[in-house]
């Protein structure tokens, strides 16, 4: 998918879907900058990666950096992105051009039982945290650099992938706070996609890089060059530590509603993220892709 040597920032990278995203991007030759709320968890994840011998297609060892970060806190998220940029610069890598927002929590309960703290924890992590990371990634100078990087350095542009949930589309008993947070992620994704397309195209026009010839247009289309795309993945019931906490009788009830007759695997979400990050999805932005085994039908 032409992802080799790209630098990827992943939040919530220590477990669940985030951990599988780490493995997936590593397997495609990407350099990684990982974050989670607990430093020891991210260090454990990196230790596991190192034991797998992280090698690129050219047998060049890939670079892995990390930082503890609470995405609920704007200053920490800004610091995270700055650290990722410094990491890339210090190792002579291209500017991080892929961001995957996988940090998320649940605090389930009937609406009468959800405390204000439970509501705030979910909204602040899932929605505000995603906003903070997108805002730091889309800082004006970063956007300009990403949109004007020469093709000789791997192609310009970038990709943001937000992890939402089918619950935002369909609702679920006991998850009013979670549904609200992930619904916000959908709206954020669609609005930011339009904003980034507008800004990216304006920067290209200012630099005189917009082309109209058939050959040049085809090259831009294939490479996804010069545009920051923003998409979301809406997982269904994915088998992660978070969902394993669901009572067994509820798991059986949910499974009966999935036409594919299995729970999703984190790899199912990660494979979709790889596609959306690649040049093969260069004409895809502002979309919210369900990965649910048709549970939503």
Shape: globular
Low-pLDDT regions? 53-59, 150-154, 211-224
CATH topology: Rossmann fold
Instruction: Kindly report the name of the CATH homologous superfamily.
Output: NAD(P)-binding Rossmann-like Domain
Overall residue-averaged pLDDT value:
86
Order of helices and strands: EHEHEHEHHEHHHEHHHE
Strand order of the largest sheet: 3-2-1-4-5-6-7
CATH architecture: 3-Layer(aba) Sandwich
Euclidean distance between termini CA atoms: 30 Å
Structural class: alpha/beta
Largest sheet: 7 strands, parallel
Number of strands: 7
**Percent in helix:** 40-55%
User: What is the tally of helical segments?
Assistant: 11
What's the structural domain tally?
1
- Percent of residues in beta strands? 5-15%
- The first-level CATH class name: Alpha Beta
Radius of gyration: 19 Å
Note down, in words, how this protein is organized:
This protein has 297 residues and is α/β, with parallel strands linked by helices. It has a single domain (7-246, 265-291), classed as 3-Layer(aba) Sandwich (Rossmann fold), CATH 3.40.50. The chain is 48% helix and 13% strand. The protein has eleven helices and seven strands. The chain has helices at 16-27, 39-51, 74-90, 116-137, 140-148, 167-170, 176-206, 214-223, 241-244, 248-255, 266-277; strands at residues 7-11, 31-36, 64-68, 98-101, 158-163, 228-235, 288-291. The chain has a seven-stranded parallel sheet, with helices on both faces. Helix 5 packs across helix 7 (176-206). The longest helix has 31 residues, at 176-206. It is globular.
């Amino acid at each position: 998918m032409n992802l080799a040597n790209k630098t990827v920032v992943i939040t919530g990278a220590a477990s669940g879907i985030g951990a599988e995203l780490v493995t997936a991007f590593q397997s495609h030759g990407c350099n990684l900058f990982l974050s989670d709320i607990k430093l020891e968890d991210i260090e454990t994840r990196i230790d596991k990666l190192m034991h797998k011998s992280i090698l690129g297609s050219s047998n060049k060892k890939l670079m892995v950096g990390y930082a503890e970060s609470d995405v609920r806190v704007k200053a920490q998220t800004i610091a995270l992105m700055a650290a990722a940029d410094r990491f890339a610069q210090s190792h002579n890598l291209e500017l991080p051009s892929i961001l995957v927002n996988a940090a998320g929590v649940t605090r389930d309960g009937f609406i009468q039982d959800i405390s204000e703290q439970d509501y705030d924890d979910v909204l602040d992590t899932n929605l505000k945290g995603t906003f903070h990371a997108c805002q730091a990634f889309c800082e004006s100078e970063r956007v300009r650099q990403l949109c004007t990087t020469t093709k000789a350095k791997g192609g310009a542009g970038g990709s943001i992938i937000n992890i939402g949930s089918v619950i935002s589309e369909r609702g679920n008993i006991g998850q009013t706070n979670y549904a609200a947070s992930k619904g916000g992620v959908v709206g954020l994704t669609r609005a930011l996609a339009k904003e980034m397309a507008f800004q990216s195209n304006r920067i290209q026009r200012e630099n005189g890089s917009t082309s109209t010839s058939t050959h040049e247009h085809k090259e831009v289309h294939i490479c996804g060059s010069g545009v920051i795309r923003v998409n979301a993945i809406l997982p269904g019931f994915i088998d992660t530590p978070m969902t394993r906490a669901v009572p067994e009788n509820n798991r059986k009830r949910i499974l009966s509603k999935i036409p594919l007759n299995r729970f999703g695997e984190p790899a199912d979400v990660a494979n979709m993220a790889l596609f959306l990050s690649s040049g093969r999805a260069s004409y895809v932005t502002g979309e919210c892709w369900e990965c649910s085994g048709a549970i939503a039908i």
